[in-house]
# Entry
Amino acid sequence: MKILVAVKRVIDYNVQIRVKEDGSGVVTDNVKMSTNPPDDNAIEEAVKIKESGKATEIIAVTVGEEKAQETVRKALAVGADRGIHVKVDGIIEPLAVSKILKKIVEKENPDLVFMGKQAIDDDCNQTGQMLAAHLNWPQATFASKIEVNDKSLQVTREVDEGLETIEVNTPAIVTCDLRLNEPRYASLPNIMKAKKKPIEQINASDLGVDTNPRIEHIKIEEPPKRKAGIKVASVEELVQKLKNEAKVI
Amino acid sequence: MSVLLIAEHNNKEVKPFTLNAITAASQIDQDLHVMLIGSKADNVAKSLSEVPLVKKVLHIDHEIYENYIAENYTAAILKHADKYSHIICSANTFGKNLMPRVAALLDISQVSDIIKVISPDTFLRPIYAGNAFATVKSNDEKKCVTIRPTSFEAAETTGGSAEIEKIDAADLTENTKFINREEIKSDRPELGTARIVISGGRGLQSGENFKLITDVADKLNAAIGASRAAVDAGYITNEHQVGQTGKVVVPDLYIAVGISGAIQHLAGMKESKVIVAINKDGEAPIFSVADYGLEADLFEALPQFLEELNKLNTIQK
# Structure
């Protein structure tokens, strides 16, 4: 079984986001970038499945500018066998990414495609479902547990009501929740070894996919600020304030 | 052209977030049709027809829709979508799972999780966990939009009398099977719509200690939330998680207990009207968004808080 894992390079989750003054976007110069957190879970799960003997090869793929390769390199250090970097500059929407990934799937014929359930930059939560639609494959989104069977997967999904379990036939797309597993750190020897693993570079334009944005970003602004609060000295004071000042209890 | 909203329901009743999405959809265009895909859900069709903002209910009734499977819903929506300018649903796990599948097959770049309708093609949406707001204009001819439910009032549910039209089912997928859903029944208000939410974090130190939170929640008739750290640690189940990848809540009062205030948690609660933080670390980031901060050990503060609440003559319900 072959698993394709899609990863995205985003501003690190710990970075305090700053909006550019001209309203054109957020500041990315000299800002720490990392792999989108649930994409780490997607890689980890693929590596675990391979370690259990149920998968033979893991391919990590990313779509983005030159530096996006770092995320593929990290996936290789954690256990992916080889990488693909589809190069494209500028803003690329989930719809276009899903069309690019479809081309890669057609080329590589994986049995499973894993990725994070949502990217923490644009918070769109679309790519996996869109890829499943283009391929006419089943989708198991927001996965917190995956059981691999012969020709199917049993997936536990985190939904608003609690947990839902579905069975999907392979080939299938799974989007991963942060609770799926605990991503491992790459060891130094594995980081060194990963440098020798191959990353194939493909230009998005060579895939025949239209990557022009359909959505115009008219303005990016800071959200309204909350007015500064106060510290109360005691529980009694807190309850009095809630009752008499805020009038919420 | 009319707009089409996809209803979320359990074949017995409409889920509350659909009512918020109805309000948003009607701001895009007043000629709002609601599609109900279900099995033996006539009561749901009737209650949707009574929502005054709804102009028509399209009801697809077939046993294959007993459980919500995105693949099957998508086929049904595509069969009837062509005469609509917008396809809309709520941006909760229901709509997040469904809408991109529909959008991709219509070759539409979806606009996710909007918090404001500026015009029929321009919307406001939070990005980077709500640390920036983007004004976006969709240049697709037809649009797929999901609605952040807590940013819109729930629609009135009585007084309307929309026509209910029965429409055809679509083909069924063989590749996805529903197995089961573990739904935790609770008498408490729902987290997404509660007037008061009290949430616990890693500071609680164990699942048993969540009883301190539960006791206060009972007194205030509040819903119970949690930080991702508390859910990851197994103190409480996933449906309680508030944050960027959990639920977004906007209650009148949000009480954060033993929660440090990571960016991804703030994303889920910082629009609450009044925020209280109880934390023994005075430097915790949660205090930066709190209207009332109490620097204290929660194991002492929570029992005292309950005691003080008990002294009050009345508590708003």
The mean pLDDT of chain B is 95. Chain B has two domains: 2-167, 196-311. Chain B touches chain A through 91 residues (CB under 8 Å). Chain B is about 25% helix and 30% strand.
